[in-house]
Amino acid sequence: MNNRKKRYAINTALVLALFVVLNTLISVGVIDMYYEGIIMMIGINIILATSLNLTTGFLGQLALGHAGFMAVGAYASALFTLNAGAGLPDILLLVISLLIGGLMAGLFGVVVGIPALRLRGDYLGIITLGFGEMIRVLLINLEITGGPLGLRGIYPLTDFTNIFWIMVIVVVVIFSLMNSRHGRSIISIRENEIAADAVGVPTEFYKVFTFALSAFFAGVAGGLFAHYMMVLDPKKFNFMFSIEILVIVVLGGMGSITGSIIAAIILTVLPELLRDFSDYRLLIYAVMLLGIMLFKPSGLLGTKEFSFIRKRDKEDMKTEGLGGEE
Amino acid sequence: MEKLIQQLINGLHVGSIYALIALGYTMVYGIIKLINFAHGDILMIGAFLAYFMLSSGLPIWAVIVISAILCALIGMAIEKFAYKPLRNAPRISALITAIAVSLFIQNLFMILFKPDPKPFPKTVSLGSLSLGGIRLDGITILTIVVSVALMIALEIFINKTMIGKSMKATSQDSKAASLMGININRTISVTFAVGSMLAAIGGILFSMAYPLIDPYMGTMPGLKAFVAAVLGGIGVIPGAMIGGFIMGIAESLTKAYISSQLSDAVVFGILIVVLLVKPAGLLGKNTKEKV
């Protein structure tokens, strides 16, 4: 128990230190606007990837429409700030709009997740794919979302500080969930759904729950994205974008939260470095994905979690043992 | 009334192309349980090959034969290099590999031939028939005839020939099939070859109907054909045909009576409803998973 507390303390200290370092660098101007933008995008991508990892990595169900949930969240939260934004302090407005975005996306997650209950295997992938496409088509055709032109003039409510802390909260929530009894139930569905059902895990509940939660966080990421970009273009949330998020999860390792974080950093920075070769970016993506699948199908970290603290007490080993081996 | 019949004919036209492409999805899924996301891109390759051959003046029948054969080889190569190493891996890995192959092909073609659409040469100038107020384009008749003929040929191939029967056996139980002396690897290769051929021909027919080709052209028809395969019951060949026709007709009716923008949403909506009511698809058998 003592060891565990120590780990929490060290992790908290590391996160705080990272924040202080980045924040200082930004305020003294070592990190300029451009790099600050990249860091903010990294934060949003981390939320997206860890949330998709819930469904694809831990629940073991392929979801191909994550961009759709993000779009729902982005539009819902942007529409809220545009229509009800007057008078509220910025931070409160942001929090409420993110909650609204997340809840809307989560609601859609339940709606899509319930049919997914009745289907097994690849069908969830197909349904989410269809759903993602439907959302995109609806966004282009509805009046309230601005049609093909998208939404413009969204208030800029996000900055480095709030993206960073929201990201930390999301990661901590997902991490503690996956290390809880519920998390183990979710992982048991991935390992063998029929067996999990047989030993009394309410698989249907956990499938919908995980799916909706994953959608909720995607919606939160969408809300952050909307208030960072200030414009929403329905074309952004297409099938390819869902794939890009999936690539992050796969590269990091399906079932590894730290893997998703590392991969989100790599795959957000890499395209910026490859700016001069922008035509080749997706080709490089494809080759990378193929390479990972053929040579290391479990991704960079597999289902392991990366940690600075190696020593674990017995209790912790037991808690994480389930997801620990391949 | 005339408008309705006209739209139904248009629907049959596109639907028969979807059905042709859906056959490839359904055969591959039936045999190795993989959604071959690269299938739509084989269609695109077929159309591009045809574009270059037609531009160099080859006759249309030679163009179709050559691009079908080349696409068959490409399909087999994809299976050998990308899917075969993963045959025993978790299905999610194989699926992601298929997505990666699709991305790879699209972006390779985008770099090689630029993303801007190219006009597909007008090849066969068939006249059009007018019956009352209904117009029957030559190309429409040709497409439907070619598609239906190919589907019948495929049914005969699968039910009557040795290799076709071994495909059926492998899709039922590949382990038992291999114990009975069926060469599984060869059977899977042939499946990919046949599916890719049909996709190539589908691609050429598609480009004749919508004469603009670009590296991403395979995605949407590919997705819709896949939805058609799921709709009819994936793994079931007549199901793919029925699914294809339903999709085509639903799409053209939506375009005519509701909104051309919403046709994609309607198509996916139909899929979701069907999966809810009959998860195995229209002609699919419900199989219980064994413990």
Question: What does this molecule look like?
Answer:
The complex is a heterodimer of chains A (326) and B (291). Chain A is 74% helix and 0% strand. The C terminus of chain A is likely disordered. In chain A, helix 3 runs parallel beside helix 5 and helix 10 crosses helix 11. Chain A has a domain of 201 residues: ABC transporter involved in vitamin B12 uptake, BtuC. Chain A is mainly alpha-helical and 326 residues long. Chain B starts with a helix and ends in a 14-residue tail after the last helix. Chain B contains eleven helices and four strands, in the order ααααβββααααβααα. Chain B is globular and about 60 Å long. A two-stranded antiparallel ribbon of chain B has the order 1-4. In chain B, strands 2-3 form a two-stranded antiparallel sheet. Chain B has 291 residues and is mainly alpha-helical. The model of chain B has no long low-confidence stretch (mean pLDDT 87).
Tertiary shape of chain B: globular
- The CATH first-level class of the domain at 38-238 in chain A comes to Mainly Alpha
Structural class of chain A: mainly alpha
Radius of gyration of chain A: 19 Å
Alpha-carbon Rg of chain B, integer: 19 Å
CATH architectural name of chain B: Orthogonal Bundle
By DSSP, the count of extended strands of chain A is 0
Rounded average pLDDT of chain B: 87
